[in-house]
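Severity: low
Component: inverse-folding endpoint
Summary: output formatting inconsistent between runs
Steps to reproduce: submit the following structure tokens with default settings.
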């Protein structure tokens, strides 16, 4: 895969502590256009803390984060405007229709009514959800709600899509559909994706990986490099090897 010179996301020397507990320790990595980078780590590894820094829910004095060439501290609004996010916890208004939820989000990004309507149709049609646009969100199952959240995150055509454990709690067909759809996005539209998960079956062989454990990066690179480095035959075995506890 040919990468652009400048990454869409650049995280450099980031650390974060909660009191005496160090949640992230000198973390650095980048994500380029057209790349799906999987942030793989067990629960408590620091994945959500990292996402909280990238979305500016938290702040840190150490290190720097750039999104689409914009420093997150110096140009917060512009940098965050180039970001689409699907958080682990659902954030849709259950009593509004699919369309109303999406129009509300489009308004927040300053999209005009005609432009918003066209974008909503485009994103919902991609996921076979346009015919359900007038249904209330609470009428949808978990997988379809996640599709709406992904559509919402893409309305303003961001450079970077963050996905924080987006398939947790979904059945296997729903998980498979979302994983395949996001990977197709990177191939067809060259969006950069950072996908946090602890589920190794969501990883494609073409993905770039970051293995995070106890706030530190244990590995960065491709799937073949991971298997070669750990002398294992599967991502699951390699992941277990890198995150096992020494007793």
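Observed output (run 2 of 3):
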């Amino acid at each position: 895969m040919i990468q652009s010179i400048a990454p869409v996301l650049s995280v450099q020397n980031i650390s974060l502590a909660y009191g005496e507990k160090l949640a992230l320790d000198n973390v650095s990595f980048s994500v380029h256009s057209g790349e799906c980078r999987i942030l793989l780590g067990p629960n408590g590894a620091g994945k959500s803390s990292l996402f909280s820094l990238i979305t500016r829910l938290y702040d840190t004095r150490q290190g720097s984060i750039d999104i689409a060439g914009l420093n997150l501290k110096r140009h917060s609004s512009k940098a965050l405007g180039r970001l689409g996010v699907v958080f682990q916890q659902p954030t849709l208004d259950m009593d509004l229709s699919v369309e109303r939820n999406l129009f509300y989000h489009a308004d927040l990004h300053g999209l005009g009514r005609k432009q918003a309507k066209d974008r909503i149709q485009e994103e919902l049609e991609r996921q076979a959800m346009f015919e359900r646009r007038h249904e209330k969100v609470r009428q949808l199952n978990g997988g379809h709600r996640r599709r709406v959240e992904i559509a919402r995150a893409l309305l303003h055509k961001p450079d970077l899509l963050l996905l924080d454990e987006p398939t947790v709690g979904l059945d296997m067909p729903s998980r498979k559909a979302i994983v395949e759809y996001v990977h197709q996005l990177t191939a067809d539209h060259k969006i950069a994706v950072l996908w946090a998960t602890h589920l190794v079956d969501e990883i494609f062989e073409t993905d770039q990986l970051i293995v995070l454990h106890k706030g530190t990066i244990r590995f960065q690179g491709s799937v073949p490099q991971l298997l070669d480095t750990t002398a294992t035959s599967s991502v699951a075995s390699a992941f277990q090897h890198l995150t096992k506890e020494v007793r």
